[in-house]
Design goal:
Length: about 450
């Protein structure tokens, strides 16, 4: 189980690193409503010689099997990564270049639809407001990091949470030159931000987002409690109710609250930097630092309790394309630490290569990200993406009609039985072209995983 959980975490990290290059995958345009079309191929490749000879899996069989698989098709993207994004994909899973599992994916706002021959031509509806709650079930009942994998699979949720906090704060501190935000205005701001957690009874978006992010660290309830009563933190930071003092020299801004320098931001010829320091009345202190030189990104986060490091996170990326460069290659590392881990996690290291054949759309681009195994320091997994990309008018996106409006994420015993009766025969038939290419070692690893996690029992076919 531990090896499979580590592999899941690696795939998650590959997705997170790919997100760093997301503007390359679907460029945001000035108008925001234009459609970026990508005719693409996406592959996940294994390299047996990159894994240690530990017998944890049949690595050679996985290398042979994954080399035959790819996701191919055409994807249209509009307002990429925002909570009102549109995505339409028409393609499928290919074996040796042949589309054996064709499907259509249509997503807009919080609605997702999948239509496939394997589903008898029917469409399945997914309401993403229920996605994190659904993915937490894998963590609760199977001990899998499904709640963490959910975060990069639904980036619009991060956009929603980020803008929900950022926009009110940005509006409250807006201005130029030295200025002050009164304590009364700060108190009103805290009450507004409290509502993100406390006033979303229909969807509980912040609750499930922060629970998915922090539950494995045992910190989700505490974080939500603090985020729901920010005026208590304000009273601790500024007991004399002096307000927030902002100094601005045109290059750097410094924010001081109650004698504590809580935030600094600098933008100059060398790049952009900021630092954040937020102590609280319980003895915790959150510190964040970020630096972007254009070619490199360095970020760190630390949560301390009375001086002891409870959680640390460091992210470093180098070799990024600068000054309109059409190609780049570099490395990235993600390292976690702190007393909240019984054993310090092994840092995750990557190598990447990126290129495109023109500075502006249309162009062809490639992105390859290697996970470097910590024992061998060789590429063990590679996420490879190639696409021909172009910009199309907003009218490219059209509304489509779908037949099934039952939310898959409300899956229960009766829904499960209905889906099994309707789709299990056609799904099983559709997977035959994949299964015939699957080596025995891969079948053995998958069945062992399904049995060990209890997934076979969940499906009622154990």
């Amino acid at each position: 189980m531990s090896a499979l959980k580590r592999l899941s975490a690696i795939v998650l990290s590959l997705c997170l690193l790919a997100a760093v290059f997301s503007p390359a995958l679907a460029e945001e345009t000035a108008g925001g409503d234009e459609v970026t079309r990508s005719d693409f191929t996406l592959s996940l490749l294994a390299h047996a010689d990159g894994f240690p000879n530990d017998g944890a899996a049949h690595y050679a069989d996985w290398e042979a099997f994954l080399s035959k698989l790819s996701l191919e098709g055409v994807i249209d993207v509009q307002r990429f990564l925002t909570n009102v994004s549109r995505v339409y994909f028409d393609g499928g899973l290919c074996v040796n270049g042949e589309n054996v599992l064709p499907f259509v994916y249509d997503g807009y706002h919080s609605y997702r639809y999948v239509r496939a021959d394997a589903l008898r031509g029917d469409s399945i509806h997914f309401q993403m407001h229920n996605f994190f709650e659904f993915m937490l079930k894998g963590y609760y009942f199977m001990g899998l990091p499904t709640q963490l994998i959910a975060l990069p699979l639904y980036p619009e949720a991060s956009y929603y949470i980020g803008t929900s906090y950022y926009q009110p704060i940005a509006d409250a501190v807006a201005g130029e030159g030295d200025r002050t935000v009164s304590y009364a205005d700060l108190y009103e701001l805290c009450e507004t931000l409290d509502l993100i957690v406390n006033d979303d009874w229909d969807y509980e978006r912040a609750y499930f987002y922060f629970t998915s992010m922090l539950i494995d660290l045992g910190a989700s309830d505490m974080a939500l409690q603090k985020l729901g009563y920010l005026e208590d933190w304000l009273a601790f930071m500024d007991p004399e109710e002096m307000g927030l003092f902002i100094t601005d020299d045109g290059t750097s801004q410094t924010y001081t609250l109650g004698g504590t320098q809580v935030f600094t931001h600098t933008r100059d010829a060398s790049g952009e930097r900021f630092s954040l320091c937020l102590p609280d009345p319980d003895g915790y202190e959150l510190t964040v630092s970020y630096e972007n030189t254009g070619a490199e990104i360095h970020g760190s986060l630390a949560i301390t309790l009375e001086g002891a490091e409870r959680l640390t996170l460091n992210v470093d990326v180098d070799g990024l394309p600068v000054d309109g460069a059409l190609a780049a290659q570099g490395t990235a590392t993600i390292a976690l630490g702190g007393e909240c881990f019984s054993e310090p996690p092994t840092p995750v290291a990557f190598a990447y290569r990126y290129s495109r054949d023109a500075a502006e759309l249309p162009y062809a681009m490639t992105l390859e990200v290697d996970w470097l195994h910590p024992q061998t320091q060789k590429p063990a997994l590679t996420l490879a993406y190639q696409a021909d990309m172009e910009l199309l008018p907003a009218s490219t996106m059209v509304e489509r009609t779908y037949d099934n409006q039952n939310d898959f994420f409300h899956l229960n015993e009766s829904f499960m039985e209905e889906y099994k009766q309707l789709y299990l025969p056609t799904l099983a038939l559709s997977t035959v072209p994949v299964l015939v290419e699957m080596p025995a070692g891969v079948i053995s690893d998958i069945m062992g995983f399904l049995y060990e996690t209890g997934f076979l029992a969940f499906l009622g076919i154990e």
